[in-house]
Amino acid sequence: MASLYPFIKEDILKDIQSGVYQEDKMLPPEREFTEKYRVSRMTIRRALDELIQDGVLIRKSGSGVFIAKNKKSRSISKVSIQTDEEIVKTYGKVIIKVVSIKTVVNHPLALRYLDVKTDEEVYQLKRVQYGGKTPIVYENIFLPKRYFNSLDKIDCTRSMSQIVHETIKVKEATNRSIEVEARLASKKLATYLEVAKNAPILQTTIIEKNAENNPLYCGVNSFDATEFKYTSE
């Protein structure tokens, strides 16, 4: 007997397209689908999982399966969401919340991107930027203490450009390189971004340098890829 999940997948997709199930609304529980189609929960789950893989549905941790929203477009070059007019227009005020500030040594990311010695102290600053009440980006930032020698005593809820500009011992960043990678959300990252564990995440690693091409700081920024699509412009 042929598997029924392709038929069920297609039938659910038709209901989405016809408006039976609407964007950003939760689908009925799997139990209702098993009763409707008279199949096992495993068959229903396979149909739903394929629709999730196709980007039609998303699974939210602790909530259920939802119709995927039409993704908002952002330029990958816009590092700060505070100056992103589209974010401000959509969500209102941008708020930065500091998760933690601590001193680290011999951290692999700092060694890789900041040209620091293995025993050199580096600040690790973790923050979440919100558009209104919606978490947009989780930031994991590394700043050498030789430049930012009193980071724990200043206001770290400002943009990084403001922090760099107002730090006495360093010139404003003038050069930037960006690396982009697709990842799945870890349990901790999923908590910060309020997404399901293993949800798709777009991760950018940004290295800011001064006019002499010396690394000033690097930041690993994680964005919810179910909420946004990104362009190179």
TrEMBL record:
Keywords: DNA-binding, Transcription, Transcription regulation. Gene3D superfamilies: Chorismate lyase-like (3.40.1410.10), Winged helix-like DNA-binding domain superfamily/Winged helix DNA-binding domain (1.10.10.10). The gene is frlR. One of its GO terms (biological process) is negative regulation of DNA-templated transcription. CDD domains: WHTH_GntR. The keyword Transcription applies. Pfam families: GntR (PF00392), UTRA (PF07702). This is HTH-type transcriptional regulator FrlR. SMART domains: HTH_GNTR, UTRA.
